[in-house]
Structures are given as structure tokens and as C-alpha cells.
Specification:
The complex is a heterodimer of chains A (271) and B (278). Chain A is built from 13 helices and no strands. Chain A has 271 residues and is mainly alpha-helical. Chain A folds into two domains: 31 residues; 219 residues, MetI-like (MetI-like fold, Orthogonal Bundle), CATH 1.10.3720. In chain B, 79% of the residues lie in helices and 0% in strands. In chain B, helix 5 packs parallel to helix 11. The chains are: A mainly alpha (271), B mainly alpha (278). At the A-B interface, helix 1, helix 3, helix 4, helix 5 and helix 6 of A face helix 1, helix 3, helix 4, helix 5 and helix 7 of B.
């Protein structure tokens, strides 16, 4: 019904200009820059021991985080949707707190709680447990910043779900646990995967909270984003390019996967 | 949704139910509440007076003011562009629409450090855009325009993503009616479209604000972290922390956390209004 009016033309060119400047050109810029020295050179920066260790640490901690987060996220969403209990309202509204709190502040809070100067940190230290400047700190930070993703993906699906089929299963003699695994879980699957993919994607790129909590110890606590920052800081952008391009490609993959999940569950809204 | 009459059995036997509830409360307290309280405790063990001296140093004040300025600019630009994007993506059909939809999600998926790096390469003094801008004496990297662009990048999807589902649900009938009754495009937008997407816009707006205030990685890479020049609030906190002035870092963090908390509360009231509308 609409004709191609000048105002629509203006709107559209404005959008293309904006996205072009903000997203498309920076991607082209980094790709062009990484190809300057040829593929060989890019590869050589990627396979240094430090870069590989950072990559391994990033994916390792992210996988551990996702497993914990999925299990606790399902339980949290389930309890929040199905049960009434004191503090439910407060918990439900504070779930989004990690989205609102700046990542650096998250890091600082964790240091305040578990750092060597705190009471808890001192006790843990005496028992040989190090959280800050070590891997557990990274995992705690990741769990904090990604906590809302799984819960918020599952909650609406669980709310809309027809409880009659669960009841039917129980009447037919299925136990609670069997009902959960055979009826509830299959319905939740796409939303669980969406939450997991969002958490994972966030964890792979996380910087602010980790740089505070874990510091920048090469081969020990240096995750990919911190490694990239370290290379830039020491004026070696060439060294940062390899991992940056790899992370960027990974972001694209996650987006494609999320898009696929969106189609699978017929939902418009992933975040 | 169906109302559930009493016939539905409890989902689990009571002890299982209480176990799960306790587990959730404990997990939530350990993961979310304990760190917040830990920081408050550390801060107040140093005294309330210390808090005020720490957040009123010239560097702290400068950094908070800079964050405020950048956030204001970013909110205005990305709210307008977000509405425009949502309208274009929902109401218009054109080639490359799917690609565009994918592109606007990219800032959610890219690491902030990589985002900052990309922007530095594009606008850096060695790039053709950077050197072209230098002719006009505009410096992007290591200055405030760069911080603004980095923040625009990371907050780009919020308004568009919140408005799109609302627009889709709203449909185009009312707008067509307005057209038929003789309203022009502007009138239709202001009197029909905007009121219907109001809560979605406000929710996206608060998300944009929270992220703009809290952005760290992208800004750190682009800004160069120059004290009293390009240091935003989050960069200031990081600086205090690396300089081992923990009291300063805690004080500024608490202030920023308080601001975030207020935004969260506002955000949730918008979200609820939005749900009711839907």
C-alpha cells in the first residue's frame, strides 16, 4: 500500500548510514587489518603459547559456568514460576540485577567479598582455597554476569506451558522426576539452549569483571579478552588481531545458532 | 492462560518442594546478594566519611560527569535510531532485511574489548577515516567522540529489540485508519504509533542507560584512560583498584551500583507496564 516516498528513502538511508558506520565498517576495518600481513602472520599470532592458553582458559571456564548456570537456572525458573514462598517477589525482581550492575563493579564486589583482605577470603586462604586471582574467581564472575540469561529464557515458556499434560502424566502413574524429564524438559529444551547460548556468548567475551577478579597473569588467569587488551596495552595490535578475529567469528556463529533456535521455538525475542 | 483450579496436584511432594526453594534462596544469596553486601561492609568498615571524601575527589567527580554526558548523548541518539530501526524492520519489506536484523544483534555477541579494538582501527590516526577527520581537527580515538561511538555500538540493539515485538503485536490497522481519515505520516507517528510503543521504548531506554553507564571494556580500549580527560566512572574505578586505593574503588563502585539499582527498579516498573499492555 505504501509508495516509495522521500521520507521513507530518508529513513532508510539514515539507517544504512548509521549501521554502516557503527557496525559494518568496523568489521571491514578489522578484517582488512588482519589480512594486511597475510593469513600466515595472523595464524602465527594465534598459535603462540600465551594466546592458546588464554583461549583454553576462556572456553574451559565458560563451559563449567554454562553447566552450573543451566542446572541452577532451570531450578530457579521452576521454583519462581510454580511455588509461592517468602522473598519470592524480591528474588524475582533482583534476578536482573547483574544486567544493571557494571561489570567492573561486579569484579570489585567479588574482590571485596573473597579477596585476601576480607574475613571470608582469609578463612578460605587458610584452608588453601584461592578464589581471587585464580580460576574460581573467573567462574564466580561469569556466573554472576550471566545469571539472568537462562532464568529469563525459561521463565516465560514455563509460565505459558499447559500444566494439564504434566497432570495427565502423573495421573497415568509417572513419578515427579519422570514427569519432569519426559514432559517438562522436552518443552523447555529450545529455551534452555537459548539461555545457554546467550550465557556462553557473553562469557567468551567477558572482560570487565574478569580483569578485576582474576587479574592479568599470563598462562594462569588471562582469558581471551584480557589477552587482547594486554596486547593492545603493550602497543602490539598485531598480536591482538588473531584472537580478536577468532572471537568475532565465534560471535557470528552464536548469532546464527540463536537465530536457528528462534525459528525453532517460534519466538521473536531472544534477549 | 488457563486459571488453575484446585484439582492440579502440587508439582512435587512437600519436602522436595522445600528443598528446591531453599536451594534457590541459598544460591541466589551466595551468588548475587553476598557480593553486594560484602562490598557495602568493606566500605563502611572504613567509615561513612571516607565514602564521601572518596567520591568527591576531582578525578572521581570528573569521571562521573563524563559518564553522565556520554550517557545522555548515547540515550538520545540510540532511542531515535532504535525506534527508526524497529519501524523499518517491522513495517517495511526490502532486500537485505534479514541481514540487517542479524546485524543489529551483533553488539550483544561481540566482546566489548573486540568492539573497542574494531572502532580504534576504523577511526585510528592511521585509518583513512581517522586521517580524513584529522583534517578537520577531529580526534576520535583517545578522546570523547571515541568513547561515545564505542558506547553507541554496545547499546545499539536495546531500543530496537524492545520496540520490535510491541510493534508487531500492534499491527497496522490503526495506522491505516489514521491515514484514511487524512492524517499525514508525522501525525500518525506521533498520535498513533508512538503511544502504542511507549512502554517498549521506555524499557529499551532504561536498558540503554544502564549499559551506557556501566560500559567498560570497549571504552577502556578506545579512550586510552587519560585521567581528567577521557576517564569515565568505570575506568576510574578500575584505576583506583589497580592503584591499590581499595576504599576509593569501593566508594565509587557503591555509588555506581546504587545508580544501577535505581535504574533496575525503574526498568522493572516499565517492564510490568509493558506486560500489562501486551
Amino acid at each position: 500500500m505504501r509508495t516509495f516516498s522521500p521520507s521513507i528513502l530518508l529513513q532508510r538511508s539514515l539507517i544504512f548510514f548509521y549501521l554502516g558506520i557503527l557496525i559494518v565498517l568496523p568489521i571491514i576495518a578489522i578484517t582488512a587489518k588482519s589480512m594486511e600481513g597475510g593469513f600466515q602472520e595472523l595464524w602465527s599470532h594465534l598459535v603462540t603459547p600465551h594466546a592458546l592458553a588464554a583461549l583454553k582458559l576462556t572456553f574451559g571456564t565458560a563451559i563449567i559456568m554454562v553447566i552450573i548456570n543451566v542446572i541452577m537456572g532451570i531450578i530457579t525458573a521452576f521454583v519462581l514460576v510454580r511455588y509461592e514462598f517468602p522473598f519470592k517477589k524480591i528474588i524475582n525482581s533482583l534476578i536482573d540485577l547483574p544486567f544493571a550492575i557494571p561489570t567492573v563493579v561486579t569484579g570489585i564486589m567479588l574482590v571485596a567479598l573473597y579477596g585476601p583482605q576480607s574475613v571470608l577470603g582469609a578463612i578460605l586462604h587458610d584452608n588453601g582455597i584461592e578464589i581471587i586471582y585464580d580460576k574460581p574467581g573467573i567462574i564466580f564472575a561469569l556466573l554472576f554476569v550471566t545469571f539472568p540469561f537462562v532464568v529469563r529464557s525459561i521463565q516465560p515458556v514455563l509460565m505459558e506451558m499447559d500444566q494439564d499434560i504434566e497432570d495427565a502424566a502423573k495421573i497415568l502413574g509417572a513419578s515427579n522426576i519422570a514427569t519432569f524429564f519426559k514432559i517438562t524438559l522436552p518443552i523447555l529444551w529450545p529455551s534452555i539452549l537459548t539461555g545457554a547460548a546467550l550465557s556462553f556468548s557473553r562469557a567468551i567475551g567477558e572482560f570487565g569483571s574478569i580483569v578485576v577478579v582474576a587479574g592479568n597473569i599470563p598462562m594462569k588467569t588471562q582469558v581471551a579478552a584480557v589477552y587482547i587488551y594486554g596486547e593492545l596495552e603493550s602497543n602490539n595490535p598485531q598480536g591482538a588481531l588473531g584472537l580478536s578475529v577468532l572471537l568475532l567469528m565465534f560471535s557470528f556463529l552464536i548469532l546464527i545458532f540463536l537465530n536457528y533456535l528462534k525459528k525453532l521455538s517460534g519466538k521473536e525475542h531472544i534477549v | 492462560m488457563f486459571s488453575q483450579p484446585n484439582k492440579s496436584k502440587p508439582a512435587l511432594k512437600p519436602y522436595g518442594k522445600y528443598l528446591l526453594i531453599t536451594l534457590v534462596i541459598c544460591w541466589f544469596s551466595l551468588l548475587i546478594l553476598a557480593p553486594v553486601l560484602g562490598m557495602v561492609r568493606e566500605l563502611f568498615s572504613a567509615g561513612l566519611k571516607r565514602f564521601f571524601t572518596e567520591v568527591s575527589t576531582p578525578e572521581a567527580l570528573f569521571s562521573f560527569l563524563l559518564t553522565l554526558k556520554v550517557t545522555l548523548i548515547v540515550i538520545v541518539i540510540n532511542t531515535v535510531m532504535g525506534i527508526l530501526l524497529a519501524i523499518t524492520l517491522v513495517k517495511h519489506q526490502f532486500k537485505g532485511k534479514l541481514l540487517l536484523e542479524g546485524l543489529i544483534d551483533l553488539p550483544f555477541a561481540v566482546s566489548p574489548v573486540v568492539a573497542g579494538f574494531m572502532i580504534s582501527i576504523m577511526f585510528g590516526p592511521n585509518s583513512w577515516i581517522g586521517s580524513w577527520l584529522e583534517n578537520f581537527d577531529i580526534k576520535v580515538v583517545y578522546s570523547i567522540p571515541g568513547i561515545t561511538i564505542a558506547t553507541l555500538f554496545v547499546t545499539l540493539p536495546f531500543v530496537a529489540r524492545e520496540v520490535m515485538p510491541v510493534l508487531k503485536q500492534f499491527g497496522i490497522e490503526s495506522e491505516e485508519t489514521a491515514y484514511i481519515l487524512g492524517a499525514n505520516q508525522w501525525q500518525t507517528f506521533w498520535m498513533i504509533t508512538l503511544p502504542s510503543i511507549k512502554w517498549g521504548v521506555l524499557y529499551g531506554f532504561t536498558l540503554t542507560m544502564a549499559r551506557a553507564i556501566g560500559e567498560f571494556g570497549a571504552v577502556l580500549v578506545v579512550s586510552g584512560n587519560i585521567i581528567n580527560k577521557t576517564q569515565t566512572a568505570t575506568l576510574y574505578i578500575h584505576q583506583e583498584f589497580t592503584d591499590f586505593n581499595f576504599a576509593g574503588a569501593y566508594a565509587a563502585s557503591l555509588l555506581l551500583a546504587l545508580i544501577s539499582f535505581i535504574i533496575l527498579i525503574v526498568m522493572q516498573s516499565f517492564y510490568k507496564s509493558n506486560e500489562i499492555k501486551l
